[in-house]
Amino acid sequence: MTRTPTPLLFLGALALIIATLFSCGNGNSESKNRIRVGGEGKIRVMPDQVTLTINASFSKPKMAEAVRETQATVDTVMLILEKFGKKNEDIKTSSISANKDYQYIGSTYKFVGFQAEQTIDFVLHDLNKFTELTAKLLETKISSISQIQFNHSKADSLLREADLIAYDDALKSANKLAYKANVQLGTLLFLSNDGLAASQGGYTSGERIDTYNKAFGGQGFKIAPEVIEFKRNIITEFGIK
């Protein structure tokens, strides 16, 4: 059985259809009166600082012995680092751990003692002292320098400057497109930058220095830093007349 719609329901449905068409029409009109372009900003500089991740790790039959040896090495390292940087700003203990130590012997893992480990991150602001610093560290019983990361002390300012360059690049592209299309560029309607850098600029050296808890001494390592790049990408949208 077919039910005939009441006049009230019919008028309500008709109003909904008209509102939907009106909304779609406005959206299409707005999209035709704007232009969206992207911009990119790059700044290339030499690094002026390097972060070293220094590890001290010892395995002993007793936990107390492993902790004691690790802490003694860390204390020696801290005294060295304080001569090359500021204690409260440049030196950071990033991890401390103490666990049972198992090694793969034969065809299975066997308990061989207790391991204590501590990791220190240190920021060196004078790259000319890198060789001297590593020479001093090699005189201690550290287990490794697991990471060497180069960066710039004014990274935040460089990224903000890259933002401005990216906007200028987008504006230049928008003006060129408007000229080619024989239209006049209007006001800025949309600007997108999520705050994430396309490139943070710094880079990590692939080198790892293992010392195996031996005090080698001798000469430190030399470095030849590469140019680092700070890059930002933005999206802009302008009205057109």
UniProtKB/TrEMBL annotation:
Gene3D superfamilies reported for this sequence: Protein of unknown function (DUF541), domain 1, Protein of unknown function (DUF541), domain 2
InterPro entries: 26kDa_periplasmic_antigen, SIMPL/DUF541
Lineage: superkingdom: Bacteria
Any matching Pfam family: SIMPL
PANTHER family attached to this UniProt entry: PERIPLASMIC IMMUNOGENIC PROTEIN (PTHR34387:SF1), SLR1258 PROTEIN (PTHR34387)
Protein name: SIMPL domain-containing protein
